[in-house]
Amino acid sequence: MEYQVNYITSEIKLSNYTGRLFKTEAAFDDHLLVWLISGETKIIQADESFIFGAGSTFLIPRNQLATIINTPKDGLPHQAVAMHLSAQRLKDFYSHVNPAPKISKSSIFSFGQHPLLSSCMASLIPYFEMQESFPENIASLKITEAITILRTINKDIDSILSDFAAPGKIDLAAFMEKNFMFNMSLEKFGYLTGRSLTTFKRDFYKAFNLTPQRWLTKKRLETAYYQLTEKNRKPSDIYYEIGFENLSHFSFAFKKQFGCSPTDLTKI
Length: 268
Description:
Layout: E1 3-9, E2 12-17, E3 22-26, E4 31-38, E5 40-44, E6 49-52, E7 57-60, E8 66-71, E9 78-85, H1 87-94, E10 109-110, H2 115-122, H3 136-153, H4 158-161, H5 172-179, H6 186-192, H7 197-208, H8 212-230, H9 235-238, H10 247-258, H11 262-266
């Protein structure tokens, strides 16, 4: 099997991937703390990208739109321990401590190979071999330990971890122009812009005079055309970056829109 996930609790897992690459679109409901044992992880956001190698530890804040590409490397699988920091866990934690003043940062946090954090995550490995259930009190202790270490090594982390508010209503047009390449459901796009699905669809049509599905397809294909003709990129290198799940679907939609296949443009 190419992809395997082993949970010791619903909040702590060990993933193992041996295929060519594993791509997913994300806007997690929980903060995700990851310790990468082997392989490489690339995280693509609208404004910046990150590449993490073996031994790296990083935090993906909740509700952050991103394309995540996990790749085996150096003959080893992509293997990682991930810990979900849920709102309830964090509320319980901050009910006993005072968070630091808030700052306006909500991007990916990179902690490199910090020994405290790495040892905390590595200490979970033996528990994945257990046959019996992982005790809840130990899981709680490990998550509390991780949060405490995060606050110790990065004074700004409270701004993210202690913020439990749902996304507020924002400029829909500006948000979609920036994030059209992420293959999210309309419900998720609505939530991230502070709207119900019905209100999102209504406001979207007012902004673009098209339905979300038609606009997203048109925008992604126009971006692909630019990448192919102006940047001389290959179809196989761009389809997943602009929101298509597979190359054949991208090629079909592109030919329907422009009358030629993506590979036809690369031959010009």
